[in-house]
Specification:
Chains A, B: One of its GO terms (biological process) is proteolysis. Chains A, B: One of its GO terms (molecular function) is aminopeptidase activity. Chains A, B: It is found in: Endoplasmic reticulum; Golgi apparatus; Lysosome; Secreted. Two copies of one chain form a homodimer. By secondary structure, the first copy, chain A, is an alpha/beta fold. Chain A folds into two domains: 268 residues, Zn peptidases (Aminopeptidase), CATH 3.40.630.10; 153 residues, Glucose Oxidase, domain 1. Chain A is built from 13 helices and 16 strands. In chain A, strands 1-10-12-11-13-16-14-15 form an eight-stranded mixed β-sheet, with helices on both faces. In chain A, strands 3-2-9-5-6-7-8-4 form an eight-stranded mixed β-sheet, sandwiched between helices. In chain A, helix 2 packs across helix 12. Chain A is elongated and about 70 Å long. The N and C termini of chain A lie far apart (67 Å). The structure holds zinc ion (2 copies). One zinc ion (ZN) binds next to helix 7 of chain A.
Chain lengths: 485, 485
């Protein structure tokens, strides 16, 4: 920009070098939408009542379970009753893993029961169980240091999750959960018989937390189970005293043939650009402990409630708001992948996922680049009445990750997560941990954000997703393959 | 006391009407003892190391278990090694209740498992279990309102413990625990088949809390078990929806013949008045879940550590400090009763019990009357370095209650109890909940209080206990008795 003209006769003043950019003017329709949604959230507990109903009546919703399909059917029926458009179930085949009986006990240096909770997708043990010494490591990478020393042993990965720290949000989860996801194959590489993992939580009342593991298909599959932080500490004290703990572990887990499930979808058809989409995302499956109210029943009830609130307030935006209750986030992400395959050619302008529980509203994590963040920041004050006005850079969600990886703007609802990981994947994830007014206000925050994303002007036309070219099938290499076996 | 002489010629001044009593001068020996004990507490983790050892090696210590007797033997051996005098086990016959298998499930309106934890001293169910509808009350007294409506049913006493509140210390426990202690007989009176009790805790991660019940010997004994607060809420929501929950309950609990146990005792012989006693009390038994580190392994390690600290610092007071690790506090108080029967004729000047866990040091509850409280208050500043300088009126402990009821001054150590009832009688009561420096500083606070109680001048000679006359055996009334049967 040119420098301002200066009158040399005028008294010397310092010219403003970096003037503050003018605050963009937010159109009244957004302010009005925020006011109405905030008021509506104060009046109702509908999302909570519905969540309590599915939690109590159907219970937890692991992929392959009847409860998951019953809940999906309930969601479809409910979205139809709510008057959403194009309500349908899009078929997805999902892994059907079953836990079976699980039992473990210390055999040395003491004899006592050892509570265990098998990790999702783990193989079972032989029927007679596995009896072996336990080697303790504090980080999954230490397995490589021990190498062949873990052969024939059970490896305990005793990495403690640090206590919640708001400044680190949930960034402690990623590093800590590696032992759970990778531990079995990392230990199988050196001939370990099984893996135990300290439950990924910073606060335990002798609480077990499951979650999926991921096997390296090139290595033997060995069973893996979570133990409580308390018992992990006990193993560590035994080792510190020079003792060699020995346990028996019996796990009846197995993988059945894939089962039929589906993504449950309903829409609020856009008034001007019905073929452009803003996705409100959650996952309807859960682990098979607790009732999955926090992870992620709450997210699905928020997404459904958000669409219904917009409809009831006649806040129909220009683009279509599409509610997608994804199936099988927990142990396969098959719902997210199937949605992407079926819908990648449609114009997705943004997606907002709720999969961080239903604590008090706090704000949003906004993916994409700084410019996309800057473009949304001026709307933050509209969320103040809901307590959801904190916008941070970086966000999205697992179910919409195929979409965001292809260029869609992804956002994640960010409630207070200070107790999220206390409950996550544990029997303590039950409806009583959720406050009705938190759930309803989070739903209103999602509705307002969906309204903004589906209504606002963009710089140019909506861009199609960048769908990666399918990788060519690798040439068969029969000799190399034989070597690996 | 006579009024001070007034010179009528002196200028008129207002006589002080209620002069502040002069702060009593605390003898240097107490100040010095406080200084030494505070310094010593900073240096060591001995009490914690010992507690971790017994928790890890012997585990929980229910009356009748080998672990209890092994722990008592360890305590006797340790007190001998510590150089305490007259170390001995005083035999006590204790109830031998065993839990057996326990299993329950919802049959209607849903089918799902129901985690249960049998209440201590409960009878079992018939082998095939009990199948019945569940009636929910919010307070044990509501059973009387329902009366015959509970006949043939299982009664759930769904009284929630309020969240911790410092100003109410643990006063919420007393009212809430009545359902657990009295519920079975209160419901049996009207023909109920069994009782479920909401676990007595304000903070749960699907946590079960046991504890003893007390049967009215004139009523049929029906089985009783705790359920989690989460499942209690689920029952309540079912009833609110007009549904009638129905469950199956199988409990294998039974009472075996009394087992031999004992109080473990060691002494620091008083240098001038060896036949006058200050008791340092705790209970060495625990429930058969968790490892009993908080309730009350910590109290016993504090009492042992306190005596050893005094000995090592050569702070031998005038009277004898007697460490008593009582057996069977949890389900019988047989240790407390047996001690009283054996020792009621000895001169007990005070007793200090530690049975409120090992949170950060905070202070003491002081039983007896206001004058006894006022006499100890001037010593409070000596506890500031340990953080245990808050003296409140009212205190004692269950094990020393037969002594305090007979007139002995009773005190209770009062650490921070904000998380005490989260752990109490649950599988989460494990050593990892305790900070070594809290345990050691609480031990030092007990040592200093024991030193003061055993050293200080009293107004006159020590008073014998007021032992109640044994009640005459009631005349046999064969006719009346027949009527009651
Ligand atoms: Zn989730
Ligand atoms: Zn106790």
């Amino acid at each position: 920009m040119p420098s301002p003209a200066v009158d040399p006769a005028a008294p010397s003043v310092e010219a403003p070098v970096d003037p503050e950019p003018a605050t963009p003017v937010i159109d009244d329709k957004y302010v009005e939408a925020g006011r109405k949604l905030t008021a509506m959230a104060e009046e109702d507990t509908r999302a909570y009542d519905r969540l309590a109903y599915i939690s109590d009546v159907y219970g937890h919703r692991l992929s392959g379970s009847q409860a998951l399909e019953d809940t999906i059917d309930w969601a479809l029926e409910t979205m139809r009753e709510d008057g959403l458009a194009k309500v349908r179930k899009e078929k997805v085949m999902v892994p059907h893993w079953v836990r079976g009986e699980e039992q473990a006990a210390f055999l040395a240096p003491v004899e006592r029961p050892l509570p265990v909770l098998t990790l999702g997708m783990s193989v079972g043990t032989p029927r007679r169980g596995i009896t072996a010494e336990v080697v303790v490591v504090n980080h999954v990478d230490e397995i490589d240091t021990l190498g062949e020393q873990v052969k024939g042993k059970i490896v305990l990965i005793n990495m403690a999750m640090p206590p919640y720290d708001h400044d680190h949000h949930d960034s402690f989860y990623g590093p800590t959960v590696q032992g759970r996801t990778q531990g079995a194959s990392r230990a199988a590489k050196y001939g370990a018989k099984a893996v135990l993992v300290r439950s990924v939580t910073a606060h335990s009342l002798r609480t077990l937390h499951t979650g999926t593991l991921v096997y390296d298909e090139d290595l033997p599959k060995i069973p893996a189970a979570a133990i409580t932080p308390e018992d992990a500490d006990l193993f560590a004290r035994m080792v510190a005293r020079g003792e060699t703990p020995k346990i028996r572990l019996k796990l009846g887990a197995k993988l059945l043939p894939d089962a039929e499930s589906g993504n449950a979808i309903g829409e609020l058809t856009g008034r001007e650009l019905p073929d452009e989409y803003v996705v409100l995302a959650c996952h309807i499956d859960s682990w098979d402990v607790g009732d999955g109210s926090t992870d992620d029943g709450s997210g699905c009830l928020m997404a459904m409630e958000a669409a219904l609130m917009l409809k009831e307030l006649e806040l129909i935006p220009r683009r279509t708001v599409r509610v997608v209750l994804y199936t099988n986030e927990e142990n396969g992400l098959r719902g997210g992948k199937a949605y992407f395959e079926a819908h990648a050619d449609e114009l997705h302008v943004a997606g907002l996922e709720s999969d961080s529980g239903a604590g008090a509203p706090w704000g949003f994590g906004i993916g994409g680049d700084q410019a996309q963040y800057d473009a949304l920041l001026p709307y933050a004050p509209l969320f103040e009445g809901l307590g959801a006005h904190n916008f941070t850079l970086g966000g999205g969600g697992a179910d919409i990750s195929p979409l965001t990886q292809a260029g869609m703007l992804g956002l994640g609802l960010r409630p207070d997560t200070s107790h999220y990981f206390d409950l996550h994947h544990s029997p303590a994830d039950t409806i009583d941990k959720i406050a009705p007014y938190h759930l309803e206000r989070n739903a209103a925050a999602m509705a307002l954000m969906a309204y903004i994303l589906a209504e606002r002007e963009l710089d140019g036309p909506a861009q199609p997703l960048k769908v990666p070219e399918p990788e060519p099938e690798p040439e068969p290499e029969p000799e190399a393959k034989a070597e690996n076996e």
